[in-house]
Each structure stands twice: as C-alpha cells, then as structure tokens.
Amino acid sequence: MKQLSHLSSEQLWNWLIQAHQEAKKGELPHYIPLLKQVNPSLLTLCLITKDYYTLNQGDSHITFPLMSIIKPFLLLYLLSKLGEELLFRKVGSVPSNYPFNSLEQLRLDQGFPRNPMINSGALTLASLLPGKDGDTKCQNLQQWLNQQGKSELFLDELMLESVQSLPNPRNQAILDELTRKNHIKNPEITLDTYNKICCLSGTIIDLAKLGLLLVNSQNIEQNYVSIVTKIMTACGLYEASKNLTTKIKFPSKSGVSGAILSIVPEQGAIACYSPPLDAQGNSVASLYMIEKIANYLNT
C-alpha cells in the first residue's frame, strides 16, 4: 500500500475540482433548518498521518457539526469507561439494511439496538454517558475528546437550536420503544444529550485529529480501537455500508452535515466535508474524494 504522506497537493486539488462537480448530484438535508441553509459549494479536506504530517485543501477554517460522526467516538469513550462486556449487553454490533433512523429495524430486533452507528444504538449509548443531565454528559464527552485528540470541539448552540426547532417523530418513536423495553430510563435527558453531542462542532483539522485516536492513541486500549473500526467498516455509512466498503476499503463514518471520516490503518486519517448528500445521507463529494484517495493508496 502507498503512503498517505506521498499524496501531493496538486493531486488532491485535481480531485477536489472533480468533487465539486459530483457535489451537484446531492441535496442538502431538509429536516434541520440551518443545514438546509449551508452553502452547497463548500468543500474541504484534511489528511493527517500518525506522525502528524498534515495536508489540507479548501477552507480549513470552516466549522461544522459532527452529527453522526460523533457515534464512533461515543462508543470509544464508553468502551474506555465501562468496558466491552457491559456495553454490548446494551447494544449490538450487527449491520442494518434499514435507514439510520429506522423504527422498523428496532421492532424487528425486539427493541434491542442493532449497532451503535444507527440512532437507536447511539441514543442508548448517550444515556450511559456520566453526568446528571444533558449538559454535563455532553461536556464530559467533549472534554475527553479534546484532551485525547488535541482537538477543539465546541457545542454549536445555534445548530442545537435548529435541531430542536422541529419535531423529530422518528427519534421520538425510537426513544419510546427503547424506554418501553427498559433500555433507557430517562428519555428526556437521553434525547437532550444525543442532540447536544451531535452538535459538537469543529474544523476539518479537528475531525482529522480525532481520527488519529483510531490509529495510534497511546492512552486507549488497542482492543477498543479495533472494535470501533470494525463496526465503522460494517455500519458507518448507513445501509450503504456494505456496497461502499468494497470501494473505500477503510473504516469510515459519515454525518448528515456532509462530513466523512475514514481511517487508513497504521497510517492516519482522511476527513472531508461537503454538505450535499445522497439518498442514504452520505456526502456525495466526500465519498468521491475518499474513494479517489483509497484507489491511489491501494494501487
């Protein structure tokens, strides 16, 4: 396999130009008002290797919410705090063929969350964060990630207001089902926590630095890293994960803000942000860029 550090700025720029055209095939999400108002032509990328060689393209000062990209790091944090045995009594690790916010999948599984990368699993894990309320639970996760990842995540209050401004009947139905099955004790605090951690925000460099936690972190047990990257590979790109894994070949996680994080094992991380999404909720241009990089590294 070729090295991430061998990629040139010129090569990345050429792919970025093509990715701008690909982005026109996607659409902005309609269910969060602020995300619907984002400039669809935004596109930025950061590569970072395990020895902190960094290569950026696009505006690296843009900030965006992590949304579902927080899910693997929520899992990593709780593994480090609670351990594998307890955690996987609460949530499974099996891929889903249904959308990330599917109530049907949860009911088919008799109320047991199928994996941590879909909303039922992430809501369940959010309820396990230490703290008395959504604020302290979110702050505990935020502080740990910033300390471990040398990142500067912050809670985007305007984005949080936007998320909370419209009802989310799917998430509410999922919460009701989880509560009925005794997987969650306090649904109000759980939903507040989940909304807040999804609105943790940063730059493309912050996201790439977080990716290094899944490459060479000295303070996190390697077994936990392996668990997270394995689940990312199988479940990180929603119901499209199985098909896209054959193209990208790296553990990846997307979020509806338009960001995607991919882990290049033993080398580093690729973070890309472009708001327009495909039908599954994955960034069209980000997928294009990461696939181009993956093809380069694997030839």
Number of strands: 8
Q: Strand share of the residues?
A: 5-15%
Class inferred from helices and paired strands: alpha+beta
CATH class: Alpha Beta
Portion in helices: 40-55%
Number of domains: 1
**From the alpha-carbon coordinates, what is the Rg to the nearest angstrom?**
18 Å
Order of helices and strands: HHEEEHHHHHEHHHEHHHEEEH
If you had to describe this structure to a student in words, what would you say it looks like?
A hairpin with a 4-residue loop joins strand 1 (44-49) and strand 2 (54-57). Helix content is 49%, strand content 11%. The longest helix is centred in the middle third of the chain and has 16 residues, at 134-149. The strands form 2 sheets. Strands 2-1-8-7-6 form a 5-stranded antiparallel sheet, sandwiched between helices. Helix 1 packs antiparallel against helix 14 and helix 3 packs across helix 4 (84-90). It is α+β, with helices and mostly antiparallel strands and 299 residues long.
Compact summary:
The chain has 14 helices and eight strands. It has helices spanning 9-23, 33-36, 70-82, 84-90, 103-108, 119-126, 134-149, 157-165, 169-180, 187-198, 204-211, 222-235, 241-248, 284-297, and strands at 44-49, 54-57, 64-65, 154-155, 200-202, 252-254, 259-264, 268-273.
Ordered list of secondary-structure elements with their pairings:
Elements: H1 9-23, H2 33-36, E1 44-49, E2 54-57, E3 64-65, H3 70-82, H4 84-90, H5 103-108, H6 119-126, H7 134-149, E4 154-155, H8 157-165, H9 169-180, H10 187-198, E5 200-202, H11 204-211, H12 222-235, H13 241-248, E6 252-254, E7 259-264, E8 268-273, H14 284-297
Antiparallel strand pairs: 1-2, 1-8, 3-5, 4-5, 6-7, 7-8
